[in-house]
Every structure is written in C-alpha cells, then in structure tokens.
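Hey all, quick one. A colleague (J.T.) asked me to put the magnesium ion job into the tracker so the inputs and the structure tokens live in one place instead of scattered across chat threads. No bug as far as I know, just bookkeeping. Sequence used:
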Amino acid sequence: MRSSLMPFGPPVSRDRVITSFPKWYMPDACLQLKEHFHGQVSAACQHRNMGTIGLKLSKVVVVGDLYVGKTSLIHRFCKNVFDRDYKATIGVDFEIERFEIAGIPYSLQIWDTAGQEKFKCIASAYYRGAQVIITAFDLTDVQTLEHTRQWLADALRENEPGSCFVFLVGTKKDLLSGTACEQAEAEAVRLANEMQAEYWSVSAKTGENVKAFFSRVAALAFEQSVLQDLERRSSARRQVGDGDLIRVEGSPPETQESKRPSALGCC
Ligand SMILES: Nc1nc2c(ncn2[C@@H]2O[C@H](COP(=O)(O)OP(=O)(O)O)[C@@H](O)[C@H]2O)c(=O)[nH]1
Ligand SMILES: [Mg+2]
C-alpha cells in the first residue's frame, strides 16, 4: 500500500502507515487502554479537517544511563540496523521519522544524546518542548532502572506539567528469558506506575517490539496533537463568535449594553 498524500511529500514506507490504534505492551502499565482513536480525531482525519496538521511533528527525547542501549534502539527503529560498535556522532542529535496516521502525515523528531549522559549534564535545550519522554534502562542492570527516576525528573523540569507522555523502556530483552525477565518486568511495571509511564520491553538486537513501541508513541502523540489543535481552533471560533463584545453599527446600544454592561461601559 502506498500513501495517497503526495502533495505533502513522498509516500512513507508501508510499516510507517498506522490505520488502527496500536496496542499497549502491558495493560497494567499503559497510558491508555482504549483500542480506537478518539472519535473526534477519527472524524477530523476523515474529513481532513486538520488545519495545519500536514506539518505536525512531535519531539521525542530518549534519556537513561550511558550504555543502556538508547542509540541502538533509535538506530534499530530508524535504520533497521544493530551495530555493536556504533558510536554516536558528536553534534548529530536527532532523527526524523515520518508516519502516516489515520491518513494524515505525521513525524517524530527523535533526539539522541551525543554521549553527554556520561557526565549527567544534558543541556536543558535537549529536553525543552518534548511531547514524549522515553526513559530507558537495561533489563539486566537494576541500577539503571533506579536511575530512571532522576532522568525523568530532569526532563520534566524543562517542560510544562502534564504536557508529556512518559514511557519506561527496558532494553536488551534478548539477554533475559523466563523468570529473570518476568522479575525484571515486574519491578519495572511498579516503577512505571509510580512515574505514570507506559512500560515496554524491547530488544534492539533482535528488533523485538521496537516497531510496535514507536508506533504506539507516534499514535499517542499524534492523537494528543490533533485534540489540542481541535481545541485551539474551537476556542478561537468561540472568541470570534462572542459577538456580544462587538457593537454592530446602527444597532440600538441599549440592547448591547443590557447584555454586557462592563464591556461597553467606557469611551
Ligand atoms: N544484547 C543486546 N545488546 C544491546 C542491545 N542494545 C544495545 N546493546 C549493546 O549495548 C551497548 C550500548 O549500546 P548503546 O546503544 O551505545 O547505548 P547508549 O549509551 O545508551 O546509547 C552496545 O555494546 C550495544 O551493542 C540489545 O537490544 N541487546
Ligand atoms: Mg548513545
């Protein structure tokens, strides 16, 4: 299937086309349990009633201790490679991934650190304006899970309260199996609930859950953006439509004033 939205740019690849709402990984640590797009969002997408939605892009930041596998996760998703010896290029900080969601073009701007996490001093500009915060830890190293609290606090400090979706991601799932994996996930789910985050286990090495995870990120961010857009536009309409504030030339002033005395009381 190819996208029909050529006017917005070249078609996105097939695995970036999202038509139904992607599912959570674990129901007891997920941000939303629903299985469909919000009714208003589906309707707006269907009617292409999106304003500037063609230009929509969300900033996603990935944080966590050095060596937990942040860069590998981004690379697996964006380039479908796993490079054991990959070193982040200093100064190159983000990848743009294009999607088509419910027929509408949408992009994620996924920010990787350039190794600054080694010094635990990531610049505030890195976090600012993030709609999604991904806190990553290594499933085989419980200390890295404990540190996610601090990484999240640092990222949240630079953003408006309640404005970000938070994900907790356990990496290197291929290194664990059976009870060990279940135990690590149970710990993570506890913390995810505390952080009000959605939990996912992934492996950049095998690719397990990587696409599903980012599809979920994209869909949640997209839906929130559309809802905000619709809300902004309807409140703008409400303001314009609030004709009580405007005196129409020739209309009897007493009827205007009887409605809104304070608005017309001066001059
Ligand atoms: N087995 C396994 N190793 C991984 C996985 N993801 C990353 N690694 C390894 O973990 C090390 C650190 O990965 P990197 O992505 O550079 O971590 P970062 O410092 O958080 O960006 C590298 O040697 C990777 O090859 C994974 O899913 N499975
Ligand atoms: Mg890295």
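Adding what we noticed when we looked at it: Residues 66-72, 84, 171-172, 174-175, 203-205 surround guanosine-5'-diphosphate (ligand 1) (CB under 6 Å). The mean pLDDT is 84.
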